[in-house]
Amino acid sequence: MMHRLGLAARTAALTGREAGSEEAVVHGVAAVCDPLGALYLPDAGALVVSDLHLEKGAAFARRGMMLPPYDTIATLNILAAVIARYDPRTVISLGDNFHDRKGSAHLPDDLRALVGAMGRGRDWIWINGNHDPDGTTDLPGTSVDELLYGGLVFRHEPSLTFGKGEVAGHLHPSATVRRREKYVRRPCFATDGLRLLMPAFGVLAGGLDLNHKAMHGLFDRQALVAHLLGRDRIYSVRYANLLG
C-alpha cells in the first residue's frame, strides 16, 4: 500500500515511460500499462481499472474480523492520481468495485464525495462483478454487466469462449521472477495480444499466479507477456522467463 501511494505522489506530473509505463497492443488497440495498476487506451480516451474491492475492511468488520480501515481511502487516492495523470474521457471499472453487496450503499459521505469529484465531467462505467452484482448506489456513472467500447469488450470474468479483444479482471493475475538472487512475486497485466487480464487495483487485493489452473486456456503462452507492477515502473517479462 505505502509504496504505491509513494509512487503515485512521485510520478503525479509524469506520463509515459517517464512515469514507468509500458505500451501494449490488445487485438489491434493500443494500450498503456501504468505502474499504478491502470490501463489507458489513448485512442478511446479511456482509463480502465479492475477489482477495486472498496470497503473490504468494512466488509470484514461486519463479519467480526478487524482490518485497518484505510483501504478505501488509499485505493481512491491512487485512483485519483492515475485519473489526474491521463484526464480520461471515460473511466471503466471492471467489477468487484466493492467487496460485497453492502459496500456501495454504506460508503461514507466523504469518500462518496471523492468518487463524485473524480467522475465529474467524464463518463464512468461500473461493470458488475461477482462480489457486487447489484451495481452501485448514488455514485456517478452507469452499472452494466458487459461493455463494448473502442474496439474491445470489457467484462469482469474472462470468457473461455469469446476472448478476442477482451479486457477482464476477476483473477488478479500475478507472476514471479528471480531478481538479484531473490524471488519476487508481483501483480501484473497479462496479455498475449488478443486478450488482457487486469491486475487488481485495490490495495488489499491478493494475486493469482499465471500458472494457476484458473488461467489455463486463456492465453497463447508462447505469445504471453506479463507486465509486472514494480516498485518504480512496469517490468515486461515473457511467460517463458517467469518462474512457475
From TrEMBL:
Record-level Gene Ontology MF annotations: ligase activity
One Pfam family cited in the UniProt record for this chain: Metallophos
Acyltransferase found in the keyword field: no
Domain of life (superkingdom): Bacteria
Domain Calcineurin-like phosphoesterase: 47-161
SUPFAM superfamilies named among the record's database cross-references: Metallo-dependent phosphatases
Keyword annotations from UniProtKB, A to Z: Ligase
Listed name of the protein: DNA ligase-associated metallophosphoesterase
Source organism phylogeny: Bacteria, Pseudomonadati, Pseudomonadota, Alphaproteobacteria, Hyphomicrobiales
